[in-house]
Amino acid sequence: MENRIVPFLEILDELQNLEIEHSIISFRCIPPEFHELLRRHTQTEALEKYKLAKVEITTEDTTVETVLEKYPSINPFRYVLDASVVGYGNLPDEALQEIQETQQFKEEKVFVYWLKYAFLLEIDFKDLVKRANDDLFNSWHDDAVIFPKDYSWLIAYTIEDEWRVDKNK
User: Fold this and answer.
1) pLDDT (tens place) for every residue of the chain, 169 residues total
2) Closest Cα partner for 23 from 106, 110, 100?
3) What DSSP string describes 129-149?
4) Is 54 left (phi over 0), alpha (psi -120 to 50) or beta?
5) CB 163 within 8 A of CB 82
6) φ and ψ at 12, to 5 degrees?
7) Which of 85, 137, 141, 153 could form a disulfide with 92 if both were Cys (CB 3.0 to 4.6 A apart)?
8) Burial grade of 20 (CB within 10 A; 0-12, 13-18, 19 or more)
9) Strand 162-167 to strand 119-124: parallel, antiparallel, or no bridges (unpaired)?
């Protein structure tokens, strides 16, 4: 559990440091036999500041499952969006700004999901675009996807520092 929670706490700390508005939507796809263990772990004093004790623990997650079905992977071993690369590099703020400008995404809130972790976040998209850095998107945290509630588009970050975008599937 520690190897999946501690690195994610680094993401939460970085979001806080960057003043990016966010909320944790759920611990996703946790087997039922681990729910109580996870709940006890989130109530420890060390994790109190993250307010994880109130986060929903689910055995399924239709939000992430739906978006990954709408935007399938071209790689059978890990998620690589079946779309052209629209940006490279380890400067996520610049890549996201360019994507937002060229695609003209208007959403205020988006979901962000790092495929390595069992957390789904809702984040203020404008804050993310302005302030994202390589402490949030990097090979250590693995592949990530960003998408709105209506699933009308998806931005994917890969561990090769590639940014891909697809719309309206």
Assistant:
1) 566 677 888 899 999 999 999 998 887 767 667 767 777 777 777 677 777 777 777 777 789 899 999 999 999 999 999 999 998 877 899 999 999 999 999 899 999 999 888 789 999 999 999 999 989 998 888 999 999 999 999 999 999 999 999 997 5
2) 110
3) HHH--TTTSSTTT--EEEE-T
4) alpha
5) no
6) -60, -40
7) 137
8) buried
9) unpaired
Q: Is the dihedral of CA 54, 60, 62, 66 positive or negative?
A: positive
Q: Which residue's entry shows tokens 């090979």?
A: 139
- pTM (global) more than 0.90: no
In Å, the largest CA–CA distance within the chain is 45
For residue 110, give both structure tokens. 């988006």
Tell me the two tokens of residue 65. 């499952």
Inter-residue contact 81 to 167 (CB < 8 Å): no
Beta-bridge mates of residue 22: 123
**If you count them, how many residues does the chain have?**
169
To which residue do tokens 């520092």 refer?
A: 161
